[in-house]
Amino acid sequence: MPHGAIALAKHAPKSGARVLDLGCGAGDTTLDLGRLVGPRGTVVGLDACEASLRLASDAARAAKAANVTFYTGDAESSSFDGELSGFDVVFSRFGTMSLRAPTAALRNLRSALKPGGRLIDVTWRSVDPHVRRMLLEGAGFTEIAFEAIDVQPRGESVGSSSWIITATCPVCPM
Ligand SMILES: C[S@@+](CC[C@H](N)C(=O)[O-])C[C@H]1O[C@@H](n2cnc3c(N)ncnc32)[C@H](O)[C@@H]1O
Fold first, then answer.
1. Rounded distance between C-alpha atoms, residue 157 and residue 166, angstroms
2. Domain boundaries, the chain
3. Which among 8, 24, 43, 162 is the best mutation to test ligand 1's pocket, defined by most ligand atoms within 8 Å of the CB?
4. Overall fold of domain 2-168
5. Residue 172's pLDDT is what?
6. Taking the complete model, does pTM exceed 0.85, yes or no?
7. Separation in Å, CA 146 to CA 29, 107, 120, 125, 127
8. Percent of the chain beyond pLDDT 70?
9. What does the pLDDT look like over 72-115, one tens digit per residue?
10. Ligand 1 pocket by C-beta < 6 Å: which residues?
């Protein structure tokens, strides 16, 4: 799916970074992130759906991706401590669009980041940027930005549009 690839090309995590892939589904962006952070980095894929995570684990084994692990959990209610804390980056490709309690989930994601860590959230353009900005500010994020991405596959009449939403966990919480 090109929207995730575009987001990763524009906002690639650094080699050695620790990354959470929220709502990782079958794990293809988790594996992409694993390649980007390299052997000194780590990537944790989190999803509420165990069946998707079984596919993700199989794909990671087949790819011999030693720096990638998967957890079953709900972003709204999981405890973001231990293995689910201290991230440089929280990435999500279409994983935040169906949150039932977005305020709780975004607060959890902010607490999972190190101070100065970044959220990179790819959503369809149907997400209202004013509402999302309010939710992100309420969850304690700063430096919130929306980048409009339009993809028009060659030879096809219908394209697709997304936001790359970026936000920072402040170094000094307000
Ligand atoms: C549209 S799919 C995207 C999957 C994957 N990121 C991709 O781009 O292929 C959304 C994913 O988010 C997961 N998800 C939705 N709400 C969640 C929550 N509250 N906590 C954890 N995962 C969630 C779903 O189980 C699903 O796998």
1. 29
2. 2-168
3. 24
4. Rossmann fold (3.40.50)
5. 77
6. yes
7. 20, 19, 10, 10, 11
8. 98
9. 999 999 999 999 999 999 999 999 999 999 999 999 999 999 99
10. 4, 23-25, 29, 46-49, 52, 74-76, 93-95, 98-99, 105
pLDDT in tens, 27-52: 999 999 999 999 999 999 999 999 99
**For residues 63 and 81, what is the distance between their CA atoms, to the nearest angstrom?**
28
CA distances from 51 to 21, 26, 70, 90 (A): 17, 9, 12, 22
Q: What is the pLDDT of residue 173?
A: 61
Which residues lie below 8 Å from residue 80, measured CB to CB, with a gap of 6+? 108, 109, 111, 112
